[in-house]
Give the backbone structure.
Amino acid sequence: MNRILKMPRMGMNVDEGTIVEWHKKPGERFVSGEALYSIETDKTTAQVEAPCDGVLESIDANVGDDVSVGDNICSIIDD
């Protein structure tokens, strides 16, 4: 099943973050809990983990993009 992953809320007063690194490329497989990408906010830098096993289908937010909470980050195909 295809699924869209959205920018997570990283704290009570955090409304956006910047994509600083992608740990996977489109077409690459990942397992639940593996880091997909890293984001930086005004308070922290954090890796965001895969919610399930699957394949990264496409990237909607590139390195350096500022992304608001709830915006599309990428789409995955989950197993």
Summary: The first strand starts at residue 2 and ends at 6. The domain at 2-78 is CATH 2.40.50.100 (OB fold (Dihydrolipoamide Acetyltransferase, E2P)). The mean pLDDT is 94.
